[in-house]
Amino acid sequence: MSKKYDPVYYGDYLGLDRLLSAQQPVSPKYGPEAHEETLFIIVHQAYELWFKQIIHELRSILRIFGQAEIADEQLMTLVHRLQRIVTIQELLNQQINVMETMTAQEFLEFRDFLVPASGFQSIQFKEIEISLGVKRDKRIAFDQASFYNRINDQDRAYLEQLEEQPDLFAMVDAWLARMPFLEQDDFKFWQHYQAAIESQIQHEEDIVRENPLLSDEEKASELSELASSRANFAALFDRDLYTAMQEDGRVRLSQRAMQAALFIHLYREEPAFNLPYQVLNALTDLDENLTIWRYRHAMMVQRMLGSKIGTGGSSGHDYLKRTTEKNRIFADFMNLATYLVPKKTLPELPRNVHASLRRGR
Q: In sequence order, what are the beta bridge partners of 184?
């Protein structure tokens, strides 16, 4: 006999009485209701609902990455949930189009009533940032000084506790750093890779020097670019040079993790690297979509406020533009293209390494 379940009513299950009565414009307190304020509230409530789902996915992703070993089945789950976050981000980016149906003058009808409330007080968005790896020391100076100043004591305590927890960036770095195969038996991949890089750069230098169509000035410029490329590649193998890049803020990943990520990209067709490559690709998409969201948000604020100060006391558009540039998380994965070489120049993997990759991790 099948189990009998209690009947569920659509509106009760979704809590529509509470959900649809949660839009309470403040403008009627001071005069006629501003028509656009309901749109403003609903758009931001929709953001918070999707933030809740992103946090739900992130917490499960953090639990998996927090394990000492991650099985292929779990990597598939990671890819699936990361891609879900990316799809939600795409929706959030499109939602800005709805907000932009409100004109700047229409926004001014109720903007002053909202002070000092602002996006600074979105605890869920702050949790997303912290969980991904944008912690206090990674923020712009304005945020480092005022990140916690605009929220109540309970929310501040919650976020400060989150700051002490391992974040996704740190967990991904540790996961990559554990990857084997870079050195196995007598095979040392980086020695072969360095030789391939040097051969490629030398070939390109010869082409520049022998090109009769280039002026001396153009040749000098091209050769300077190739020297810069050689320096970038050298940092991959030199601990001191790489540390200097980290201190300059040019990279965040540890040297070992960067090497592993590059190895995955170079040999992504190998069965053992298919799922790790999808994980890295999804993290790149996540970072790209978050950057797009910040940029579009900054453009929307400029469109609505011009150079006015934000309701939360920031410099408005200028502040948001700076966070777009500063608060990147997985930009290192996008920058891996710097170190890629044509497949025909890659060192061929020895039979024992190739066999290990076929068997998986």
A: 187
Query: For residue 134, what are its two tokens?
Result: 């944008």
* Helices H / strands E in the chain, number of each: 17, 2
CA–CA distance, 234 with 242 (Å, rounded to integer): 9
Separation between Cα atoms, residue 333 and residue 262, nearest integer Å: 8
Read off the pLDDT of residues 348-359 as tens digits, 9 standing for 90 and up: 776 766 666 655
Please state, in angstroms and rounded to a whole number, the distance separating the CA atoms of residues 161 and 329: 20
Angstrom distance (rounded) from CA 168 to CA 66: 9
Q: Is 89 exposed, middle or buried (0-12, 13-18, 19+ CB in 10 A)?
A: buried
Find how far residue 33's CA is from the centre of its chain: 39
Query: What is the Cα–Cα distance from 357 to 328, expressed in whole angstroms?
Result: 32
Residue 278's pLDDT band, with cuts at 50, 70 and 90, is very high
Contact between residue 190 and residue 182 where contact means Cβ atoms under 8 Å apart: yes
- Which 3 state secondary structure label does DSSP give 269? coil
Sign of the alpha-carbon dihedral angle for 307, 51, 24, 32: positive
Angle between helices 351-359 and 271-305 (to 10 degrees): 70
Q: Are the CB atoms for 120 and 48 separated by under 8 Å?
A: no
Average pLDDT of the chain, as a whole number: 86
